[in-house]
Hints:
Blueprint: H1 8-27, E1 38-43, E2 56-60, E3 68-69, E4 75-78, E5 89-90, E6 96-97, E7 102-106, E8 127-131, E9 149-154, E10 170-174, E11 179-183, H2 200-222, H3 247-255
Antiparallel strand pairs: 1-2, 1-10, 2-7, 3-6, 4-5, 4-8, 8-9, 10-11
Bound molecules: 2-acetamido-2-deoxy-beta-D-glucopyranose (2 copies).
Amino acid sequence: MKVVAFSWPIKARMLVSVASWLFLMLSHGASLVRGEVMITEVAAKSSRSTCLGRDWVEIHNPNATAPVDLFTGGYVLHDDKGVTNEQAFFFPPGTVLQPGEYRIWCTKSEPREESPQFGIGRQDTVTLAAVSSASSSVEVGTGRAMGLYQVVSSTGPLPYITVMDGFDVSYAWDSTTGRYEYTSTPTPGAGNVLTPVGSTAEQIAALKTQLTAQNDLGAVFFNMDDRGLSVPDGMDTVLDLRLVMVEDDYSYLLQNASYEVYRPFQS
Ligand SMILES: *[C@@H]1O[C@H](CO)[C@@H](O)[C@H](O)[C@H]1NC(C)=O
Ligand SMILES: CC(=O)N[C@H]1CO[C@H](CO)[C@@H](O)[C@@H]1O
């Protein structure tokens, strides 16, 4: 026999939250007028600098003249656990996307009312849904809240790809092909730039090029090549630091060469 793993307290809480949200929405005089907004970009942990490394979702209002109110429009953002999951995210009052705006939401952040609390897992699906305009006649108490919503925009399951650590990647809408693709040039909060992610070999080559360029900059700045010798176009020495160390400590430094080694010095 199959046991339905759905405890009553959670179910009750969920229904109360949907019901109170609907009430809040209606009490704000919401008319369920909405525009054509869409999910334009999502990042599943692989975009490092944005949102302190957390996942993020970008939503775009392509309309050039009309703002879209995500609260009064009855929008909800959820992952593949669906709109009835506790972590489905209801936009708070005053969430208005201006004409042409791209805005990102960091997941699992504070305050919780302003951040989707679901993570975007491998092959997860991120969906933007909205309360169906026919919802006034639907009984929220039946628990079939699913029927209240219609999908507005969905990424579909995020395809699995190999992405090296240290490589910035997002899954972005390509308006020229009408499909989502991975790009190695994430553009959180702005129009997408599609740059194919490439094979593992190509990622390694790109990373090497990037690191070599960074190393070359460092060689000029520190006026020191890989062997510690000065370089032709190196910058002038600004600070000449001389330390006197005990022989053992000095040899320890040489034997344990690393960017961070702690040893006492005499003067
Ligand atoms: C922008 O929104 C307005 C108001 O909802 C609508 O009349 C218009 O058709 C929309 N424009 C586009 C290009 O969708
Ligand atoms: C932390 C560490 O790696 N220490 C090493 C430094 O070098 C000496 C001599 O080779 C080693 O004995 C230590 O283990």
